[in-house]
């Protein structure tokens, strides 16, 4: 049981770190234009230098929603980690980590909403670019989506023995 708790704790910490990286770094989409490589993220457009991300007025609300949901997912993941540590030392034997699991599933839902909006609105939006693909931040966000779901379900079924 101790090994299972330690494993869940390590995966949860890894998920928090990956959420930070995927939200902060600016490699959600990578475009190739002639010989230059351009990466876009949630905050900046980076070529050789980084500048403010140019967003049309119709896509601005979608980008703000993606930014907000990614930040919310980080907050909920950290709150779930703190709740797990608190419940680990205060919860009675035989009780389940319901509150921690519920908060982690809210984090999972925030990641799902953010990545879905980004996929629907910003995949291949630059018409003059060729050879675009998703960057590592986008992939990390989907990995965090999977990990947060698995961790949330494990917290719900896990009993303190």
UniProtKB/TrEMBL annotation:
It comes from the Eukaryota. InterPro entries: PMP-22/EMP/MP20-like, PMP22/EMP/MP20/Claudin, PMP22_EMP_MP20. It is found in: Membrane. Its main location: membrane. The chain crosses the membrane at residues 7-29, 65-85, 97-118, 138-158. It is a multi-pass membrane protein. Belongs to the PMP-22/EMP/MP20 family. This is Epithelial membrane protein 1.
